[in-house]
Design brief:
This protein is α+β, with helices and mostly antiparallel strands. It contains 12 helices and 11 strands. A 5-stranded antiparallel β-sheet has the order 6-5-4-3-7. The chain is elongated.
Amino acid sequence: MPAARAERLVNLVLCLLSSRQYLPAERVRRTVPGYADAASDEAFFRMFERDKAELRELGVPLETGRIPGFEAGEGYRIARRDYELPDIDLEPDEAAAVALAARLWDSPQLAGAAHGALLKLRAAGVEVDTELSAVVQPRVRATEPALTPLISAVQGGQVVTFPHRRHPAEQPTARILEPWGVVSWRGRWYVVGHDRDRDAIRCFRVSRIAGAVHAIGASGAVQRPPGVDLLKIVAGSAEPPTAAQTARLWLADGRAYGLRRRATVLGKMTLEGVAGDVVTIELPGYDVAARWIAGLGPDAVVLEPAELATAVRARLLAAAGSAG
């Protein structure tokens, strides 16, 4: 957001907070710096409408009401009782838990929301134990592209459709799900809900969603049944952690140091004119290993097993399709 617009929004909030009465648009125009520069009445009203929409999107409780004795009859204000954060009283262990929760999110989309929550707590006078949060540093990776639209669909109560692979080497199958929630279990994300095609409760690993998640239907159509334990459903239906697998890879010279630290070099090999090493390495399940290797691009190639090579290729093709 441009600095001038951000400053104008802050001034607008201060103006509407300071008045107990509804302020007409013309009064706002004369009072708030930035609106006087509008070239015409039409330009001002366009600017004002955009700013009101921006404030409501940010969660600011902007009210509209009638002004007694005013010809236009309509004005605006922000009620302090709705805007101001109520008193928050957290025990030391609760404040530490909030700090730890904020450090869980490892994606740009979610990290900003977590950081904003901490700022609001500090602004309300809640001391967050940063020393304890630095000792324990949990990480729940939130890098899957499908995660954010799934969370939005759960919050909005909308049905979703998406392509999903039961196994990394299989072709994706279209699913229609009434999502009840998204949970993390053993370091992996799962979406839980009612599968319309199978008319049964199902959970799907988010990392195996092989395309875009589309919300369909009206908002509020999906509600989580009372008493449902999402984590229990996932724990009962998700497969146990996969044992470590031995893989043979080609790594370009001077590249992929993270994998090289875990690998044993078998010999030299030139691949498509690029010099490198053939290595053997113990890797976790195919999903995690495929993410690591695909992230190295052309610097790492799976020679065997074929299932892992297929999983890496699928991730690279999906990334290429998203970029295209």
